[in-house]
Specification:
Blueprint (H helix, E strand, L loop, with lengths): L1 H17 L1 H30 L10 E7 L12 H10 L3 E7 L3 E6 L8 E8 L3 H5 L5 E2 L14 E4 L1 H8 L9 E4 L2 E8 L13 E4 L15 E6 L5 H18 L7 E6 H6 L3 H32 L1 H9 L4 H37 L14 H26 L4 H6 L8 H37 L10 E7 L2 H4 E8 L2 E6 L2 H14 L4 E7 L9 E6 L9 E8 L3 H5 L3 E4 L13 E5 H7 L9 E5 L9 E7 L14 E5 L6 E3 L3 H4 L1 E8 L7 H11 L6 E5 H8 L1 H35 L1 H9 L4 H30 L15 H27 L3 H6 L2
Parallel strand pairs: 4-9, 6-8, 17-22, 19-21
Antiparallel strand pairs: 1-10, 1-11, 2-10, 3-4, 3-7, 5-8, 6-9, 7-8, 12-24, 12-25, 13-14, 14-23, 15-24, 16-17, 16-20, 18-21, 19-22, 20-21
Helix pairs in contact: 1-10, 2-8, 2-10, 2-11, 2-21, 3-6, 8-11, 8-13, 8-21, 10-11, 13-21, 13-23, 13-24, 15-19, 21-24, 23-24
């Protein structure tokens, strides 16, 4: 048996070498199909299949609170719910919590480093226990350090320990100045450790205030480790009992439920749909390649009819034919897989560079054992798809016909020609589907890039600062029902004013302004009341932005009526706001908004003052994909309450400054950093970038999908054109004698070319019609990724049909032109 297989392999290799044209085209088609599938799977493997970097990660779950009116919505935990799950559930080895991230300033003059901004998380003392990790130096936080009043402590990431502290082995017990407060370093985490997003430099305890046990705000992210003998279903039933206890404790908050979700699904499940969409796209590319190679094999089998008939006449079995032909197919697939795997390895780094930075576990994208096995599996599957049916067809030679005809006159017959044409129809149909996907993705990207944002983004440079908490904020200044209050220092807005003034005097700066969020990156919401409006049972919310003077002039946004904020608007003068068109249109239709009053409500009886509307600004987009402008109120940064809820820290303690340059804005980066450092060197300046650059980054996902679809569609179109050309060329060869006779009887060039093109056009039209139907059925999976274009967009469908029809016609012209040059005498002399 082994000798027989060895002989068949040698014969297959010799046959492939003797037909270099067939082998090259088949290898090119298959390597492209297998290569793009392997490349796409390497990304899916990293995001969805790689195990999480925690011991026994399958037992880790996320804990969510779901509101009474929407039990399917996954939300964050309130502190009392976290305490209840941690202390009363029976299903977990440990229950921890962390926040959504906290930016802190690190200054330590003794280190010789400049101040820098750190990305960190606040965590409970049980979080790392739940994750199953330990520090390489030092210890974790203690339960006592979870509470307010404890000495501040911090755990360092391995990268920060190396970068900032030189990897000192005696770092535990040292202190660092974090947000203006001396903080004890209690440990260093391993280099491989990350808390989900991979961006943390440090971890600090929550410092829960006593009022947190009654808090209603939901801002904690819960994570737990299931006991080894507890299933997810059992744990879910257990936490429902905890939810009932929460309901008994806080009957006025409604019937909240607690939901569990496997950690891997919670972190990366949202990537499944887009990755599956792309994997389906590359699967279509592979099917096109297989159909193309199957057509080539059928065409090649025609020239081998006499050989197979002779071998059958000599007694060789059909099984032997099938085995030999399948070995040829498998060899082609293996060679194509090797080329495709190499191409994947070469293209992996450029593709990673093209991938959006938010793509999960991007650093893990590699050709590992799982990706290699996938490549081998695709190779075997491809050989079966394109090899088996042609092998079965070719292994049934017509002995009489095959022995009578010479190899030059061997014909596949009408049945085989129909098979070839059917394979080309499949290629055209699938290529049309991919081209439609690419067209819709590209059109979405173009529409998003063309959105009128409402501001002039050219020559704008953005930068951010954050005030140190220990200096400009006093924790636990008071309580309100379910809310922790803090005092924000009046010195904070004064320092921001000094920063603002310093930026205005930088050479090359035309104007400068500031806001809590960079332009066009969204706004938080706030409850408000209108002067004289009747009380309603439901609160009314609006988007909210806190800005410095010169905001609208700097951004190039229009003020329709009224005025901008100015230096005369102070904390001790009447408080004022500017509203956008959408706000005025929604709440004061047909009225003059100027002089009316708006009162914010951050919590009950917060002491907020009514604010007079002094201007109406033109609508701007909060983000590119916004379909219509939302109501928005602009307030002045220095007209804010001193005592306010702690959750507003991100709004009150940071500022995103924007400067308009009179030239290249990037040339001002060093100057603006230096100007702010002269005001306060202990406050780091971060995220110095042009507004255009981060607006472009907002479209990374759409650009990534459009680019991949364009690549896949181009590959599919190329393979499809090869298939159309091959079948047309075979048809011309099969009808060589007929065309010679027609030429001898006086048929002109246009008549012969028309005969060739007519059949090819019919195949193209059938493929396009089927492609339209398939696209209408399959593009529904793309609806979530489209913007400004429908999945049945007529212009896209007509354009793609024209492109495919034009490419097909060009592919048919070469063999068609050859048919017009057939010499009748040569054709009639053939056997």
């Amino acid at each position: 048996m082994f000798e027989m297989l060895t002989r068949d392999v040698r014969l297959a290799v010799r046959r492939l070498i003797r037909t270099p044209g067939f082998t090259a085209v088949a290898l090119l088609s298959l390597s492209l199909g297998i290569g793009v599938n392997t490349l796409m799977f390497s990304f899916m493997n990293a995001a969805l299949l790689q195990p999480l970097p925690y011991p026994d990660a399958g037992r880790l779950v996320m804990i969510y609170m779901s509101p009474p009116d929407n039990p399917g919505q996954y939300g964050q935990l309130s502190p009392p719910m976290f305490f209840l799950v941690r202390d009363h559930s029976q299903s977990f080895d440990a229950v921890g919590a962390y926040d959504g991230g906290r930016q802190v300033n690190l200054t330590d003059d003794a280190s010789g480093f400049a101040a820098e901004r750190l990305s960190g998380h606040r965590i409970s003392s049980t979080t790392f226990q739940a994750l199953g990790v330990k520090p390489i130096l030092g210890r974790f936080h203690t339960p006592a350090e979870d509470l307010s009043g404890a000495e501040p402590t911090v755990l360092l990431s391995h990268a920060l320990w190396q970068r900032r502290f030189g990897g000192r082995p005696d770092i535990v017990g040292q202190t660092a100045l974090i947000d203006g407060q001396s903080t004890a370093i209690i440990g260093v985490m391993p280099a491989s450790f990350e808390v989900f997003d991979g961006s943390s430099d440090a971890w600090m305890p929550f410092g829960f205030a006593p009022a947190a046990a009654q808090g209603s705000q939901r801002w904690l992210r819960g994570v737990a480790r299931l006991k080894s003998n507890v299933t997810l279903e059992q744990a879910s039933a257990d936490v429902l009992n905890v939810a009932h206890e929460y309901e008994r404790m806080f009957p006025d908050r409604g019937k909240w439920t607690v939901t569990l979700q496997p950690l891997a699904e919670a972190l990366f499940g949202g990537m499944r749909q887009p990755l599956m969409l792309l994997q389906i796209a590359v699967g279509l590319v592979l099917l096109i390649a297989c159909a193309n190679v199957a057509a080539l094999i059928l065409t090649r089998a025609v020239s081998r009819q006499r050989e197979l008939a002779v071998r059958a006449a000599l007694g060789e079995s059909r099984g032997s034919f099938v085995r030999q032909l399948m070995i040829e197919s498998l060899l082609l697939s293996l060679a194509a897989a090797a080329i495709g795997a190499f191409a994947t390895w070469i293209s992996l780094r450029p593709m990673v560079a093209l991938t959006p930075a938010w793509f999960p576990r991007l650093e893990s994208v590699a050709v590992d054992a799982r990706v290699f096995l996938f490549c081998v599996g695709v190779c075997v599957m491809a050989s079966l798809i394109f090899g088996l049916i042609p092998a079965l067809q070719a292994s049934r030679p017509n002995l009489v016909r095959g022995l009578q005809e010479s190899s030059a006159r061997a014909s596949g017959g009408k049945s085989r020609m129909l098979q070839l044409q059917g394979l080309v129809v499949v290629q055209v149909t699938l290529a049309f589907v991919l081209l439609i996907g690419a067209g819709l993705a590209i059109k979405t990207l173009v529409r998003l890039q063309g959105v009128n944002l409402g501001i002039d983004t050219s020559k704008l440079l953005s930068l951010q600062i954050q005030l140190p908490r220990a200096i400009y904020m006093k924790d636990n200044a008071g309580t309100a029902p379910g809310i922790t209050l803090v005092d924000y220092s009046a010195a904070g807005p004064l320092l921001i004013d000094r920063f603002h003034e310093a930026l205005q005097h930088v050479p090359g700066v035309v104007r400068a302004t500031g806001a809590i969020f960079p332009p066009l990156t969204g706004h938080p919401g706030v409850e408000f009341m209108l002067e004289g409006a009747p009380a309603s049972g439901r609160p009314t919310f609006t988007s909210y932005e806190m800005v410095t003077p010169d905001y609208f002039a700097t951004l190039g946004s229009r003020l329709l009526v009224g005025r901008d904020f100015n230096d005369g608007d102070r904390a001790n003068t009447p408080w004022v706001v500017v509203v956008n068109e959408a706000f005025a249109r929604t709440f004061w239709p047909g009225q003059d908004p100027l002089g009316k009053h708006v009162t914010f409500k951050f919590y009950n009886k917060d002491g907020e003052l009514p604010r007079e509307v002094v201007g109406v600004a033109a609508d701007t987009r909060q983000f590119r994909g916004e379909t219509r402008s939302q109501p928005l109120v602009y307030a002045l940064h220095r007209q804010q309450l001193v005592r306010q809820r702690a959750s507003l820290e991100t709004m009150r303690m940071r500022m995103a400054f924007v400067v308009r340059a009179n030239g290249d804005p990037t040339a001002l980066a060093a100057s603006v950093r230096a100007a702010l450092a002269r005001v306060d060197p202990a406050i780091p300046v971060t995220q110095v970038r042009t507004v255009d650059s981060y607006l472009s980054a907002q479209l990374q996902g759409e650009r990534f999908i459009a680019t991949l679809f364009a690549i896949f569609a181009a590959v599919a179109l190329g393979i499809g054109v090869i298939g159309i050309y091959g079948v047309t060329a075979h048809a011309v060869s099969d009808r060589y004698r007929e065309f010679g006779i027609r030429r001898a009887l006086g048929a002109g060039t246009s008549n012969v070319l028309g005969l060739v093109m007519r059949r090819s056009l019919i195949i193209l039209v059938i493929g396009i019609v089927l492609g339209v139907a398939a696209s209408l059925a399959l593009t529904r999976f793309m609806e979530n990724f489209l913007w400004g274009v429908t999945r049945s967009d007529p212009a896209t469908f007509l354009t793609i049909a024209a492109i495919l029809l034009g490419a097909g016609i060009v592919a048919c012209l070469v063999p068609g032109t050859r048919a017009t040059r057939i010499d009748p005498l040569v054709a009639l002399r053939q056997d």
